[in-house]
Inverse folding.
C-alpha cells in the first residue's frame, strides 16, 4: 500500500514538472490560410508556369510579392479580357480581405513563375514565399512547399475551361494541363 501511495505521489510530482517545462507561448497563428495550392508541371524548354491556391487572410492583408529559387522571376498576375483578347499582366498587389477566400486560379489572379531554372516535374515540391503587407505597412512572409502536379486538387477552381495555349498578351504560357497539391505554410515575420 505504501509503495502505491509513493508511486502516485512521484507520478503527480513528475507530471507537475512536465507542465512547468512545457512552452509558455501560444501556438503561432498564420496570417493567411492556404488551401488547394498547386504549381502546374512544366516540360523541358518551357520558360514559365503558374501557381494557384486559395488564400484566406485572418486580418486585412495585401499580397505584394512572391519569390522562389526555382524561377528567375516570380510575380502576382491577373488575366483580363480586353476586347476579344485575354491578356495577362503583372500587378503590384492583391487585396486579401479578412475572412474572405481569394482564389488564385487559371484564367484569373495567379502567381506566375518565369525564367524557370529547370523543368518542374510532377510529384515534386516548389518552395514559394508569399510576401504580405498588413494594415500598418509591416511585411510578413509565409513560406510554402507547394506540390507540382498536372491536375488541380479536389476543391480547387480549375479556371478557364481550356487555359493552355491561350494568348496572354506578352507571350507567357502556363503550360499544358493543370496540377494538384497542397501547401505547407510556415510564417516568418
Amino acid at each position: 500500500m505504501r509503495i502505491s501511495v509513493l508511486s502516485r505521489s512521484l507520478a503527480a510530482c513528475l507530471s507537475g514538472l512536465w507542465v512547468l517545462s512545457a512552452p509558455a507561448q501560444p501556438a503561432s497563428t498564420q496570417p493567411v490560410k492556404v488551401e488547394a495550392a498547386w504549381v502546374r508541371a512544366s516540360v523541358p524548354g518551357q520558360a514559365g508556369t503558374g501557381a494557384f491556391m486559395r488564400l484566406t487572410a485572418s486580418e486585412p492583408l495585401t499580397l505584394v510579392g512572391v519569390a522562389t529559387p526555382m524561377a528567375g522571376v516570380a510575380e502576382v498576375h491577373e488575366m483580363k479580357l480586353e476586347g476579344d483578347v485575354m491578356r495577362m499582366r503583372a500587378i503590384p498587389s492583391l487585396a486579401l480581405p479578412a475572412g474572405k477566400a481569394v482564389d488564385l486560379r487559371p484564367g484569373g489572379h495567379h502567381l506566375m513563375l518565369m525564367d524557370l531554372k529547370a523543368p518542374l516535374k510532377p510529384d515534386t515540391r516548389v518552395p514559394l514565399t508569399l510576401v504580405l503587407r498588413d494594415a500598418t505597412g509591416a511585411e510578413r512572409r509565409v513560406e510554402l512547399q507547394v506540390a507540382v502536379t498536372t491536375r488541380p486538387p479536389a476543391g480547387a477552381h480549375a479556371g478557364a475551361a481550356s487555359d493552355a495555349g491561350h494568348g496572354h498578351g506578352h507571350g507567357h504560357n502556363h503550360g499544358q494541363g493543370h496540377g494538384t497539391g497542397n501547401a505547407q505554410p510556415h510564417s516568418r515575420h
Observations:
- The two ends are 55 Å apart (CA to CA).
